[in-house]
Write a structure and sequence with these properties.
The structure holds 2 protein chains of 2 kinds.
Chain A: E1 9-13, E2 18-23, E3 31-38, E4 45-50, E5 55-56, E6 61-64, E7 70-75, E8 84-92, E9 105-110
Chain B: E1 5-7, E2 10-13, E3 19-24, E4 31-37, E5 44-50, E6 53-57, E7 64-68, E8 74-78, E9 87-94, E10 104-105, E11 109-113
Parallel strand pairs in B: 2-11
Antiparallel strand pairs in B: 1-3, 3-8, 4-5, 4-9, 5-6, 7-8, 9-10, 9-11
Classes of the chains: A mainly beta, B mainly beta.
């Protein structure tokens, strides 16, 4: 299973951008990079995913390094509702649709 | 459109007992995956069901078994419960052949083993 490394915790001020890093140096060519977040007392929630190119959606942006060994989830304006644990996950399309989670980054948003 | 639902919300069992957890997938989804999340840890993949068969399995003992019904709902069974089985059990659904990139998770069942 491909592994990811994330900081245990990060803080951000409300309404400021947040950059959440993830290292995945053992990524293979068929691994997709996924980000999910888990709010307190809830199941994980899809945020964004990509393969090689940067991706944008209404929730966030995903910046993928050219060598794909790292990626960054960007929240453009953090709100209090963005306080959650953010998981960076590699999904091998050859191995089915299961995800292998790490311990994630706990994001605190300061009012 | 109902999302993924799980029952019960909470459950307390004693060591050695057996437990069954239930999951109804999001409408239109045909694949169900189960995860175990210990306190302070990320979810760990248990297994995945599609077409009523176990298709993928993580590193969990045979005490963990499952079933998928024709309506795509699923059960997770755990036999001979250990204290270490205390965790949040999450069910996730997805659609094979559709947008398989996204899994939708339920709120989980909190299992406490005493």
């Amino acid at each position: 299973d491909a592994k990811t490394t994330q900081p245990n915790s990060m803080e951000s001020n409300e309404e400021e951008p947040v950059h959440l890093p993830c290292n995945h140096s053992t990524i293979s060519g068929t691994d997709y990079i996924h980000w999910y977040r888990q709010l307190p007392s809830q199941g994980p929630e899809y945020v964004i995913h990509g393969l090689t190119s940067n991706v944008n959606n209404r929730m966030a942006s995903l910046a993928i390094a050219e060598d794909r060994k790292s990626s960054t989830l960007i929240l453009h304006r953090a709100t209090l509702r963005d306080a959650a644990v953010y998981y960076c996950i590699l999904r091998d399309v050859r191995a089915g649709n299961q995800f292998y989670f790490g311990t994630g980054t706990s994001l605190t948003v300061i009012p | 459109d109902a999302g993924v639902t799980q029952s019960p919300t909470h459950l307390i069992k004693t060591r050695g007992q057996q437990v069954t957890l239930r999951c109804s997938p999001k409408s239109g989804h045909d694949t169900v995956s189960w995860y175990q999340q210990a306190l302070g840890q990320g979810p760990q993949f248990i297994f995945q069901y599609y077409e009523e068969e176990e298709r993928q399995r993580g590193n969990f003992p045979d005490r963990f078994s499952g079933h998928q019904f024709p309506n795509y709902s699923s059960e997770l069974n755990v036999n001979a419960l250990l204290l270490g089985d205390s965790a949040l059990y999450l069910c996730a659904s997805s659609l094979v052949g559709g947008n398989t990139d996204t899994q939708y998770f339920g709120p989980g069942t909190r299992l406490t083993v005493l």
